[in-house]
Amino acid sequence: MANNFSNNKKVKLIAGEVYDNLPYLKKAKSYMSQGELEGKKYGKTYSIYIPDPGQVADGLEANPDAINEVEVPVTLQNKNTSVELDAWNKLVDIESFTNEIAKPRGVKLARSVEKDAIDQTINKAFQVVSGNASFKTLTDMSKALDEVGVAGTKVSFVKPSIGGTIAAGGLANFIPSEIQSKIYKDAYLGQYAGASVIEESLMLVVTVAGTETAAMSVTAITAQEGTATITAGYDVAFTATPGVPFKVNAKIVGVDGMETDQDLYIMADKDGKVPDVRFAVEGHNINNANAWVPTGYTTAAPELAVAAGKYALGQCRTEQAVGFDKYTFSDLPGSENVTESVNNVSIKMSTYGNGQNMTTMTRLDIPYAVTLPDPRNAVVGWFKID
Length: 386
What we know:
- By secondary structure, the chain is an alpha+beta fold.
- The protein is 23% helix and 37% strand.
- It folds into three domains: 7-58 and 75-121 and 326-371, no CATH class; 127-205 and 309-318, no CATH class; 214-306, no CATH class.
- The protein has helices at 7-20, 23-26, 34-37, 85-90, 94-121, 135-147, 160-168, 177-186, and strands at 45-50, 70-75, 77-84, 127-131, 154-158, 191-192, 195-199, 205-208, 214-225, 228-240, 245-253, 259-267, 278-281, 291-293, 303-304, 309-318, 323-326, 336-342, 345-354, 359-371, 378-384.
- Strands 4, 5, 6, 7, 8, 16 and 21 form a seven-stranded mixed sheet that branches. Strands 9, 10, 11, 12, 13, 14 and 15 form a seven-stranded mixed sheet that branches.
- Helix 1 packs across helix 5 (94-121).
């Protein structure tokens, strides 16, 4: 006899399938509570804030400064899939429902959200490491985070083809034979250079023509230093060919507020937007700066950071670097509504009639928001493949 089970259980199964197929977003942080997101609607924005490390003074004299948190807007998004009610209702046992709806629909929803998250966050990084598919490139990516004071559990993402190439190369130099056998058998990388290495097939592949360009402009920010008015920083604006990295003639201010010797890179997303860059002049604390330039700074056009060719992109970041939040829709009037969650994945089911064509359907929504608030918390690896 068929085992009937409730819509709640059906939706829970789908939420579980979605969660199981989000390797990139499993390693993410919820920045907002459900209470803070209550009443928010699709397409609206909420804000999270980058804290200000402030300034430190020598000696006994205090020099208080204003707290300048940087506001980062995040847009609420949604993806959905729908089936006819008859198809939903006829599957009354767990195995049939899992095989025909929960798994295929859940996997497709998950992978669509995962791709969207990668597309939105992969270009929001201030550091770029390029090289062959090798353990050295993985090491350079991880250590670049250390150089800007990033703390937390690190994770690296690479395409399976890149992971396989790395696993097959150069092992005997430094890996015991029993571990080598597992790597050759399973293309297993595990933990390396302080970061868990995870394969994700949706990591981007980019072809660089070598003719891409970028430009920048700056506006001075002045401050009083004794009786003198000095330039203490700059507001910065960029235009750049989307999807490729450019090296800027500036250095990164670490997340701890300290000036570093790490070069600053920028990348524009598909809409041409570049992460917010805030320059301070060396030795000054202003504008919660995330980059610094020397006194007497002269601007120069950003330089294309990689040679022409085909690249598979990877990423090294902390698990906390990417924000992934769920929110809930209001119930659709006159419909049956069920919402179930697995960790930070929420699935809403709505069953309703369509008066235009006299059909009834079941709709599944995954409302979410994703961002990488601070570009210093991630490094993009450009693995040359052609």
